[in-house]
């Protein structure tokens, strides 16, 4: 694959990825005609899809398409188709492969399941171009080619980019956050109801992680407070004047008796 073509394919897949929310591995729906074409030319369809999409992908085939291959009795093409994952189309009776693929891709005018379609059916590709966000792949001789963005896809992408760029600038309510409580209060005022008073929360406690842990053997903060309060509450008791005199007289009598005893002992020693 040439470098210029590879870059254009990469840009297209980026548009599908960001605008239409395609995700890897991309689901690729193949029809019976492209399988037959690849088997005749000995072209490896799995590697060709990987080179074209430039990302991980998962080839799938519907029951109606594989039944059309059974009708051709081309065993090589049948063996190749059996390697792909079977996509249930929920058709009780077999219908044309083109109608089958369109029914699973076109759901209410959009590619709901985000399929990449690989088909050789020109009428089917013409119908799918009207649906935004459908990558189309086909075989041109021995080269796998991805169609450029269709008019529907490019128009949708431009509108999406324009809304993303200018939506917030032109919207007057952009950037404003309206809480549910304010809306409820406005509705109550309109109805005439009295709005409920908001409860005020008290002061919060300290962060437990910022408080120092108590060491072993150290008193707690509450115990220290209690001891300090007790110390402040203690008052000295002053002795009364009468009690002081009695104590002084008692001490004087004791001193006098002690002196008498000393004199008597001294007199006895002199007599001897």
From TrEMBL:
Origin: domain of life: Eukaryota
Keywords: Nucleus, Ribosome biogenesis, rRNA processing
UniProt domain UTP23 sensor motif region: residue ranges: 197-216
GO biological process: rRNA processing
Subcellular location: Nucleus, Nucleolus
Ranges of biased composition (kind: Acidic residues): 181-190
Subcellular location, principal: nucleus
Range of residues in the leader sequence: none
GO cellular component terms, semicolon-separated: small-subunit processome
Stretches the record annotates as Disordered: 176-272
Family: Belongs to the UTP23/FCF1 family. UTP23 subfamily.
Entry function: Involved in rRNA-processing and ribosome biogenesis.
The protein's name in its UniProt record: U three protein 23
Native source organism of the sequence: Candida metapsilosis
Taxon lineage: Eukaryota, Fungi, Dikarya, Ascomycota, Saccharomycotina
């Amino acid at each position: 694959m040439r470098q210029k073509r590879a870059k254009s394919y990469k840009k297209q897949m980026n548009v599908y990825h960001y605008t239409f929310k395609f995700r890897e591995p991309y689901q690729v729906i193949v029809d019976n005609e492209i399988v037959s074409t690849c088997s005749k030319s000995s072209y490896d369809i799995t590697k060709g899809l990987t080179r074209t999409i430039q990302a991980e992908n998962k080839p799938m085939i519907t029951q109606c398409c594989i039944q059309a291959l059974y009708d051709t009795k081309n065993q090589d093409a049948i063996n190749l188709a059996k390697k792909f994952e079977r996509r249930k189309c929920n058709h009780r009776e077999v219908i044309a492969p083109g109608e089958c693929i369109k029914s699973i891709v076109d759901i209410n005018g959009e590619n709901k399941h985000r399929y990449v379609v690989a088909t050789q059916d020109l009428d089917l590709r013409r119908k799918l171009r009207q649906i935004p966000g459908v990558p189309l792949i086909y075989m041109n001789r021995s080269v796998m080619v991805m169609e450029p963005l269709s008019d529907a896809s490019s128009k949708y992408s431009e509108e999406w980019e324009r809304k993303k760029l200018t939506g917030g600038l032109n919207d007057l309510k952009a950037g404003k956050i309206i809480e549910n409580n304010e809306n409820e209060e406005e509705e109550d005022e309109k109805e005439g109801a009295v709005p409920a008073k908001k409860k005020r929360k008290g002061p919060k406690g300290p962060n437990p992680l910022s408080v120092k842990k108590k060491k072993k053997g150290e008193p707690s903060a509450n115990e220290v407070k209690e001891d300090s309060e007790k110390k402040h509450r203690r008052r000295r008791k002053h002795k009364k004047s009468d009690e002081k005199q009695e104590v002084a007289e008692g001490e004087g009598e004791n001193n006098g008796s002690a002196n008498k005893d000393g004199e008597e002992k001294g007199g006895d020693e002199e007599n001897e």
